[in-house]
Queue: 3 jobs
Job 1
Amino acid sequence: MKKQARRANFMYCDEKNPFMLADVDRMVVGENAGLECKMASPYMEDKWKDGKIPLSYLIQCHHYMSVCNADAWYIAVLIYGREFKWHKIERDEKMISDLVKIEKDFWENCVLKKRLPQPDGSELCDSVIAEYYRNATAQTVTLAGFDAKLRRRQELAGEIARLEAEKRKIEQEVKMYLGEAELAENKNYRVSWKAVASSRLDEKRLKEERPEIYAQYQRTIQSRRFTVKAA
């Protein structure tokens, strides 16, 4: 089945909800539908198995359908440069309704009021908080209401350390199995342990032998270090 798609050379805006914008990849010719194109690594392959679509992409396509008032959206993915898949996503009014409510709440209560949303544990949230509160003042505040959460944090830190050690042990066993081979495959997994050449600046030697150049290009980066100690 062949379909044609054209470039969408402008930003779409929802007339009812002007805070909702869409910068889409393509619009499908002859249909009230669009096209989203993706590239995926082999590590994401299982998320596309058996007709599945990653939830974040499903939400993205429904956002586009809402903004463009489209009936459907196509998504195409090239996995590891060798496997091509595509799906047609039919418009889900319940999902769109929920999505509009969430986006409206974020716009009105966070963007307009310049208030950070509640943390979600993501790395992006880490970077936003670090940027928003990058300056520190020499003051101490009373730590109230966090004892249970900090105890849980300590428990999680211990569990994460145990799991990381278990993960490293498995990786070490597989590396010993590979030996000098750089690839291993079966019907379920593909393991790669390739030699990679990289160049790094020898800062210690530069500082000792050419201190004037080291000082010229040295820069101070301000950040805040977060630590937790039991009383």
Job 2
Amino acid sequence: MDRSTKSESGQISILVLAVVIAFLLGTIAIGMVAEVLIAQQRLNAKAEAIALAGARELEFNQEQACVFAQEYSTTNFGTQAECEANSASIEILLSEPNPNRFLSTFLPKIQASSRAGIASDD
């Protein structure tokens, strides 16, 4: 037997093992990022719903629009919303802890904001 052929016989196994490990680590990383992105989309949807609920109240009772939006947020989503309203629009800011424990060391909170307003009659 040739000595050079025998010494290289296990190299493909190591290469295949390295590729499989890299693939698994990549899949795990994509899964963690996807978890955070889905949580961000859900938080955006909550912020939009709260802003729309506040905008409905804004048309009839501007002083109570933020109170109504915050009550809607607590009742329907169990979250505390920050609110700012003027005569034409209402803005909602939501913040929640990052659902992924590993990524929360780099990104401790996810945030979403939404603005809704009253259409003008022009």
Job 3
Amino acid sequence: MKLPDTIEGCHELIKQLLVVVEGLQREVQDLKDRLNKNSRNSHRPPSTDGLRKPALPAKKGGKRGGQSGHKGKTLKMVAHPDEVIKLKPTVCAACQQQLGGQTDLVLENKRQVFELPPTRLHVLEYQRYGCTCGHCGHVNKADFPSGVAAPVQYGPA
């Protein structure tokens, strides 16, 4: 863009630029308004709120957790664990000296970790056999069970 040589030309250019600036300001304001809309202040559904969902008001009073009247269960220690790992201090935390057999060890407390066994898929292989009829020569093949439609699959189809 080249600047005009006359003052009148400069005034005309300034007027044109002011119109452009006003249009851009309106567009920016429209975009800001659209960005600030959510399901609480517009017709938009809550699923369009994205990660900026408004916080739900905290419920006052009442019991937290499970349903009223339900006793509930807590994980309990077992009397005979499968494996016991004894954690014994070897260095004094105060003076950094080695702790040998000179100190009597006292069981302070214990914790148990319930580890789930590793899962393994149970794989069924269906082998379909066929044979030729001795009377008419027709080739007969056994049918796969219903739901077994692919060479390899997870569960019935």
